Amino acid sequence: MNKPGRSGLSRILDATNYSRKGLRAAWRHEEAFRQEAILAMILFPTAFWLGQTTIEQLLLIIPVALVIIVELFNSAIEAAIDRIGPERHPLSGQAKDIGSAAVMISLALCLLSWGMIIVDRFF
């Protein structure tokens, strides 16, 4: 079942605009997103210098991008939970904790990938 609304190029343009607004909101309201985005701006070019092959470069870039993606999902979960209301509820806390755990695991994967390639290259 298709949702009512635009289709074709106008839908793509709308979706692009929504994505831009989402990135702007994450940048403005989420300190962790800003920190990870700045780190990504440093690590992406570094990956091309550090990685000796295209595969190594991808193994450095993909985990960094994954951290950004997971942080955006976590921020969306937190915003939706906060929208429900300010009162504390065990399920709200659980949802936020699970989102945070996903970010932690993506950061650990990133650290592992970068660490293994750095060790392989320099040691």
UniProtKB/TrEMBL annotation:
Keywords: ATP-binding, Cell inner membrane, Cell membrane, Kinase, Lipid biosynthesis, Lipid metabolism, Magnesium, Membrane, Metal-binding, Nucleotide-binding, Phospholipid biosynthesis, Phospholipid metabolism, Transferase, Transmembrane, Transmembrane helix. Signal peptide: none annotated. InterPro entries: DAGK (IPR000829), DAGK_prok (IPR033718), DAGK_sf (IPR036945). CDD domains: DAGK_IM. It catalyses: a 1,2-diacyl-sn-glycerol + ATP = a 1,2-diacyl-sn-glycero-3-phosphate + ADP + H(+). It is found in: Cell inner membrane. The chain crosses the membrane at residues 33-51, 57-77, 98-119. One of its GO terms (molecular function) is kinase activity. Its EC number is 2.7.1.107. It is a multi-pass membrane protein. Its cofactor is Mg(2+). The keyword rRNA-binding does not apply. Belongs to the bacterial diacylglycerol kinase family. Catalyzes the ATP-dependent phosphorylation of sn-l,2-diacylglycerol (DAG) to phosphatidic acid. Involved in the recycling of diacylglycerol produced as a by-product during membrane-derived oligosaccharide (MDO) biosynthesis. This is Diacylglycerol kinase.
